[in-house]
Amino acid sequence: MVASVDAGTLRRVVVEAAERSAEVRKVVTAALGAAPQKRSAPRSELSTRLIGQCPAMEAVRDAIGQIAGTNMPVLITGESGTGKDLVAQEIHEHSRAANGSFIPVNCGAIPGTLITSELFGHERGSFTGAVSRQIGQVELANNGTLFLDEIGELPCDVQATLLRFLQDLKIRRVGGNREITVDCRIVAATNADLQEAVATGRFRQDLFFRLDVFPIHLPPLRERGDDVLLLAEVFLDRIAMELHRPPITLSRDARSAIRSYHWPGNVRELSSKLKKAVILCDGSWLRSEDLRFLATAESNSQASPKRRGPKGRNFEPEEVALALRRNGGNVTASSRDLGVSRVTLYKLISRYGLNRG
Ligand SMILES: Nc1ncnc2c1ncn2[C@@H]1O[C@H](COP(=O)(O)OP(=O)(O)OP(=O)(O)O)[C@@H](O)[C@H]1O
Ligand SMILES: [Mg+2]
Q: Does the domain at residues 55-217 carry the CATH identifier 3.10.20.440?
């Protein structure tokens, strides 16, 4: 059956199958293996979603399938850059709340004094500076999904308010006396060890139990075997397309350099390092020389094991310009792409005299 379709159709089938059904994916991938395909990965023009075939990622995909249709809270854990945001979006898109809004709240980025009003809203005049009524993020997520990112950063008093909301699904705006019922799906994520935070009293145990009903753990990229190569091929296709370059193929030694590096910044780091490598490479093959900076990053991170990301490395001006262009000049999105803080990105923009527009 599969052998009778043309290669383009087959690719589309592979990608759709890979995104929707573990079972179908296995069959089609096996058929692809037998077909005269140069690459093991589905091509990127079709896939924007969770890529990976290792057992742990299969389990993640299965878990998303099982949980999405229910209204249970989900707790996504994993190191920075492992795909927690992506999984949260997948859950939303496959859930009953898919037609509602997906409201992400970065609990670590909102100052402690503002977070209650940011989450639950406030009435006009409820505190100095509350010049008008503000609807909170929880209320905005009504009939949709509330994504509480970096939940481990939530201050203790706000944890208590959130727990009350999870128990009775009602909120009260700051300074308001009316209870408002909110029906939303809760997805939380953290790269911290919440169990340890509970043990040390930084995170409420009752809230942890409430959220930990259905945990989904994303393994670090270095534990996903050949998935790193699959991802690298898909990212290379995307990068080549963005740069209007012909397709770029990984040489054997580049594959082994990618496979043996430990990727402390996980998938985000893979994507940003490949962008740099493509800029360094001048042909249609990516060789290990184009990835030589991985060796430096490896030895730096071994010298200081606490160093988690690619922060502080040198960027080519083109690389920074490309990130800004890709994200329409948005500094937050571009800094995430590059794996640096916004402050670092602002410094790079001014150092290279770049235009954000
Ligand atoms: N399995 C995957 N397949 C394809 N792309 C992925 C995968 N995992 C992550 N990515 C991409 O890698 C980047 C980082 O992923 P994401 O933002 O979801 O990580 P995160 O775990 O939320 O990180 P952080 O803890 O820093 O917030 C994103 O561009 C995302 O689309
Ligand atoms: Mg995230």
A: no
